[in-house]
Every structure is written in C-alpha cells, then in structure tokens.
DNA sequence: CGGATTTGACCCGCGC
DNA sequence: GCGCGGGTCAAATCCG
C-alpha cells in the first residue's frame, strides 16, 4: 500500500508563478494581497519599476528555494513517520493476533474497528471488506463494494463531526458505539432527494483529531461543486473521489489535505489512484491553489508573512 | 417559517 | 427467545 498517499508533501503552490518580468509593475493585489496590506516599503521609498521588479523577483526566488527546502524537510519527516508507523503496526499486529484469532467476537466490531485502525494508519481509502467477510456475508456484498473511507484531520479542539467533502449532507442520527467512545454521526446525501449515499463520521479511536468518514453507496447526481463552482466551500473533488482540504489560518497557517480514493464498483478496474496522472495532479494543485487564494484568511496571512519578510529584509539591508 | 440538527425511541440482525 | 448493539426514525428543538 502506498503510504505516501496519506501525506503528500509535494504541495508546491507555485504552479504558475506570476510573470515578474512582464512590463507591467507587479501589484500586490495580483497575489491576492489587499491594497491596504501592501508591504510598507513600497511607500517608504519610490524605487523604479525595474528595481521593484528585481526585488520582488529576488524575493520570489528566495521563497521558492525556501519552499523547496521545506518540502524536502517534510519528505524526510514523513519518511521517518512512516517508518515509525510501520514499526507500530507490526507491534499492533502481533498484539492483535490473539484477539483476532480468539473467541469469535461481535459481528461487526471486528470488521469495522480493526479495519478502521489499519486503514487509518495506512492512510488509504479502500473497501473495508475482505474476501473472508464477503464469503460470510454475501448479502452485504453490494453495499460493501461501494463503501469507501476518507480520513480528515481536524483541529485538536474541534469537536464537530463535519467532513467537508463538497456534498450536501443531512444528519439523521448520532450514536455512541461500544468500541469507540466518540459518537458516530449518520448523514444522508441531501443534495438530491433520491441519492442513496450515506455517510458515517466518527473520530478515530487512535487519533481523536482524525475524522473517519465512511461512505456507502454512490451518488446518482453530479458533484455540487461541478455544477456551481462558486468556490464557497473548501471542499475539492475529482469525480467520485472524496477530497477535502481544511484550512485554518490564525497567525499560523495549517493546511490539512485528505485525498482519498473511492473504490467504486463501476470503475473497479481503474483502482489505480487517479492522482497519478500529472495532469490530474496539476488540476488538483490548481484547485487547491484556487481555494486557498479565495480564502480571505489565507490571503491575509500570506500578505502578513510576505510583508513581514520584506520588512525584515529591509531592516537587514538598511 | 422552513430546513437542519438533536436525541430518545424503535427496529432488526446476530450471538448465545 | 433474549439481550446486545448498530442503524434508522421522527418529534422536538434550533437557527438563519
């Protein structure tokens, strides 16, 4: 299983860097920076357009380099994390063998809970059913085949069971299950009255900051954001692939991406993650960049960071 | 006021 | 048959 799908460190938002060499002077607003938040140095001195362009170009290069270094650091961190996680999984498997092969436990707890843990740790969204289970429960085959999971990291203090995936959901129940102290919320797709899709959201028993969303069924309608790409939601989707991007920028910017694959029964052959294709990756990155730049908090935080950097650099120069 | 959410009651399948 | 537990219903409540 590809563990890297859980944390994709190749998040380079500089997909289409602004053309700083163009004749027109670069305006801060072109980066989504409000006019009132322009870096103050722009007003303190009146550099020529060329000097200004050069400075910004230099800054851009520096930021790109910094971005590249951070990406490398993240990659290393993720590798270490994956190694540690694998070790933990080994230990858990060894310890769990007794329980799994012990006296037959309750009907669903074994399949749901253990799979939750395993898949959550591996960070992939797959059908939770095994061959053994399917043979045992042929009745659930159809439903199971259309079941997928998504994992969304939330703020530590956030206790809401809301997973922004772009679809419109109506909550119809909540239950505290036995094997997880966190309540499980039940949702139905309310975008289309006839849509049979249901969603269960529950916090991971291992990591309370991770929401586990279990989707059952397939939407019989296009994605809302595909019909009206208003961009009001941060949720991103690609066909039936449930994706979500949560953004929190309060001083520091924290971006959580969860790109999971839905194992649809219709395209079972195309089980290979669609995000492999470079153009799809490009599309996803563009979507994310678009969502980010539309977020006022993000642009404000970005502007503050850039102006802070520029001020800092000015201080070192003067 | 209408739609969404909450929450206790109820239903149903499974194991004993 | 009974009890347990997950899933769903629906009345009450909330909220924009």
From TrEMBL:
Basic and acidic residues biased stretches: 260-279
What biological-process terms (Gene Ontology) are attached?
A: defense response to bacterium; defense response to fungus; regulation of defense response; response to molecule of bacterial origin; response to salicylic acid
Which Pfam families does the UniProt record give? WRKY
| Positions of region (Disordered) | 1-26, 99-141, 258-279
Mention one GO molecular function: DNA-binding transcription factor activity
Which residues does the UniProt record annotate as the domain WRKY? 158-224
CC terms in the record's Gene Ontology section: nucleus
Q: Please indicate which superkingdom the organism of origin belongs to.
A: Eukaryota
UniProt lists compositionally biased (Polar residues) regions at: 1-13
InterPro entries named in the record: WRKY_dom, WRKY_dom_sf, WRKY_plant
What are the protein's UniProt keywords? Answer: DNA-binding, Nucleus, Transcription, Transcription regulation
- Subcellular location, record wording: Nucleus
Primary location class: nucleus
Q: Where is the composition biased (Low complexity)?
A: 110-125
User: What is the official name of this protein in its record?
Assistant: WRKY transcription factor 40
User: What is the scientific name of the source organism?
Assistant: Populus alba x Populus x berolinensis
